[in-house]
Amino acid sequence: MDRVPNLTPADAAAAVRNPLAFIAARWTPDPRTVRRAALVALVMAVVIVVTGGAVRLTGSGLGCPTWPKCTEDSINNTAAMGIHGYIEFGNRMLTYVLCAAVGWAIIAARSQKPYRRSLTRLGWAQFWIVMGNAVLGGIVVLVGLNPYTVAAHFLLSSALIAVATAMWQRTREGDEAPRPLVGRPVQQLVWALVGVTVLLIAAGTVVTGAGPHAGDSSEVERMPLNWEDVSKLHAVLAWIVVTLTFALWFVLKAVDAPRGPLDRTRELFLVLLAQGAIGYVQFFTDLPELLVGAHMFGSCLVWIAAVRVLLAMRERPGSAPADLLLQPFEATSASIAGPR
Questions:
Q1: Which of 237, 265, 281, 329 is most buried, by the most CB atoms less than 10 A from its CB?
Q2: What is the radius of gyration, based on Cα positions, of the chain?
């Protein structure tokens, strides 16, 4: 067993000045460790959305009526606050778990050899989104669950999921400039698909803001819209996303596209079908809480799948470890091959 080197005063000072550089100088993580750290950060980004939905669906949004403390006199919930206090405070504590996951991803990326600045920046982007969303979450409580702030809270969480997905993907790629695997018309179709998916998610927050699940048993402001009408608009956008996904899959098959884009598009299509089934069942059964929660989870999966479709349309060869590099996709049709 190797002897642990003594920590000198100079080492301690260096650790205080730049802890990430100090760790990186003494630890080189296995490439799979970096990949797993990025995946854990992504999983926790989804978990925090789902548990936030549980807070809302159980009417615990004001279980802790103030922020950053749970009450005026206590940083944590009290027994007198009942189950709603435990649920809301528990969700707040999960934010620290999310921070730890993002922190681990940053440390692992920073310590990887050779150093990959672009990967570390994606980790820091997650950190600042988490910090911003924590403040926004506090504002949500202080303004009594105003539906517009709740919608912004969810959309910022979706931004976190997008960045976490990108980092997870980048751990398996090199650092060269991206090279397209499809032609420009297909790229434009993919961007249209992602754009409509963003509109779909945004419309979902409006459905929530106008719907019956206000987040607390007290009188909570709602968006002045008919939630059933907004739900129908949401369904129309969902069908547009499904149609664009099927069209993309058809085009990729027609031009004999590489396997990666085809696999990611098929995955998105299957997730959309499952999400649509849940959506229709919850609509016709008066929005039971369990199904609404499952639909929120499905929304995260749809967004992850859409981002992965976008990222699958290019490759990044380079210096990533060979065991984690995606196999380069060779375009088999000149009609889809981008510049090489």
A1: 265
A2: 22
Q: Which of the 8 DSSP states describes residue 71?
A: S
Cis amide leading into 68 (omega within 30): yes
Would you state the structure tokens that stand for residue 226, as one six-digit string?
A: 């008919």
According to DSSP, residue 330 is labeled P
Structural contact between residues 161 and 42, judged by C-beta atoms closer than 8 angstroms:
yes
CB 313 within 8 A of CB 190: yes
Q: Over the stretch 92-135, which tens digit does the pLDDT of each residue have?
A: 999 999 999 999 999 999 999 998 999 999 999 999 999 999 99
Amino acid at 39: L
Q: How confident is the model at residue 335 (pLDDT cuts 50, 70, 90)?
A: very low
Q: Which amino acid is at 12?
A: A
- The mean pLDDT of the chain is 88
* Residue from 107, 109, 99 nearest 22 by CA: 107
Taking residue 207's Cβ as centre, other Cβ atoms within 10 Å add up to 26
Three-class secondary structure of residue 52 per DSSP: helix
DSSP H or E stretch at residue 153: helix 147-170
